[in-house]
Specification:
11% strand; alpha+beta; 12 helices; 7 strands
Amino acid sequence: MPHLPSTIVTTFAVILTYYTAAAKDNRPTDRLNMTIYNAELPEKFAKKIDAAAAGSPAFMADLRTCLSGEKYLRELVDKQHPLSPDYVPDDLVMLEEGIYQLIRPEPLRRAAVESLNKMAAAARKDGVTLAISSAYRSYEYQTKVYNRNVRELGQKLADQESARPGTSQHQTGLTVDFYPVNESFANSAAGHWLVANASRFGWSLSFPKGHEAATGYKWESWHYRYVGLDIARFIDNYFDGVQHYALRFLHEWEQWTSNNSP
């Protein structure tokens, strides 16, 4: 019999445990556990989600709230799930320097702009000024960015630091790179403030440290995506702030539902 990697064995063991426990209390297992499996959640998140679903109706209520909101707030955009080349948000608004600094004038979706304004104002009250380096990028613009990075860094390193066209969260019009766009941002006043406060305004760090294998990108302490208050709370409460796994879970839940509807 071929030897299976330990991670696969562990995942199957966790799923088997869930099915056995769920059978005892008549919980619906298929959708939840297949979503956990298809989302490739690490064991700690798989157990946390199962416990939350079993322990209280709050998890399912929170899940339904996330799924009832605007589609692109939860849209999974990564190396395996690209946006269409012709996707352009229809409510882009130009950012205006004032309560935050702008490195260059760029647009963002209206809801994200409104939230960013509130967040920047709150930061100002705490003595912190946010600076925006990059916001919405079209498919065409991301093509130029990616090709430039390939020329300068080589294909392998470019793919760790730059999204291929269609796979950039910036194309959603919901994502901001704060300034400076380098590792020093993590230790800046703005970096510390955002870690402590961003989710209160519906923003979530996209590429956290320690999850490079899952996200496909190096840690980017400056890269935040607006997901709205409900999904931001969902990310924090059930996924310890790791956006990738929460959005992957929501995506796989909707996929399972669509594929198994009567």
